[in-house]
Amino acid sequence: MRIILLGPPGAGKGTQAAVLSATLKIPHISTGDIFRAHIKGGTDLGLLAKSYIDAGKLVPDDVTVDIVASRLNEKDCEPGFIMDGFPRTIPQALMFDEMLEKFGRKIEAVINITVDDDVIINRLSGRRMCSCGRTYHIKNNPPKVEGICDVCNNSLYIRDDDKEETIKERLKTYHQQTSPLVDYYQKKGLLKNFDGSKPIEVTTREILDSLQNK
Ligand SMILES: [Zn+2]
After folding, report:
1. Is residue 159 flagged as an active site residue?
2. Which of the following is catalytic: 2, 105, 134, 170?
3. Which residues contact 8 (CB under 8 A, 6 or more apart)?
4. C-alpha closest to that of 212 among 123, 136, 109
5. DSSP secondary structure letter of residue 147
6. Which of 71, 123, 127, 128 is catalytic?
């Protein structure tokens, strides 16, 4: 089964991908991970991508698509995959469809996990980290003493990524990029929406049920 996973930061996409991958026995392909692997491994595509990133430019779509294609040609992707982080734009989606068609394959489902921005902001902006690696949440998993790690007594801090302004900016970018994609896959009859504010295992069950009912 070939699946695309869409969802904003903080929607629990990584967790869902891990469970779906284990249950459906298909690899979870995070494009961020493949990029890092190519760059670290110094492949031609990795070096090319890095030259754009180092120049502060976006990696062009054809390079991104080539990097994804190289991963999908590996044996473990034969039974399918869960694609996470790609496509991000309509041109990428069109190139992706074309590439799959060349292999005689197509996307079978697009899973769109939606969560209200307010819920995501609450979830992420409540996170507190400690230099020892422990993580807390001011509401869901608070330390015994506010602002202090239970284990090592160090002061807790907020990651830059978890600052409210940063989250709002990331959500804005996400919505701008994703809404055309949502429309695109909706028109193709592939889109399935799931409420990511429910408990993770409930959403997982709903996703699996909908895939089995195909
Ligand atoms: Zn600590």
Report:
1. yes
2. 170
3. 113, 114, 115, 117, 120, 170, 171, 174, 175, 178
4. 109
5. T
6. 127
Above 60 in pLDDT, residue 174?
yes
Domains of the chain: 2-116+168-212 (3.40.50.300)
Mean pLDDT, rounded, for 85-105: 92
Distance 64 CA to ligand 1 centre (A): 39
Report pLDDT for 214. 56
User: How much is the average pLDDT of 172-199?
Assistant: 93
Indicate if 128 belongs to the active site: no
Residues with a beta carbon under 5 angstroms from ion ligand 1: 130, 132, 134, 149, 151-152, 154
Residue 205 appears among annotated catalytic residues = no
How much is the average pLDDT of 111-136?
94
Which of these, 111, 107, 85, lies nearest to 31 by C-alpha position? Answer: 85
Looking at residues 119-146, what average pLDDT do you find? 94
Measured in Å, residue 125 CA sits from the centre of ligand 1 at 19
Residue 2 annotated among the catalytic residues of the structure: no
Alpha helices (H) in the chain, listed in sequence order: 13-24, 31-41, 44-54, 61-72, 90-102, 117-125, 164-187, 200-212
User: Residues 86, 31: contact at Cβ < 8 Å?
Assistant: yes
Q: Which of 36, 40, 106, 159 is catalytic?
A: 159
Tell me the pLDDT tens digit for each residue of 128-140.
Answer: 999 999 999 999 8
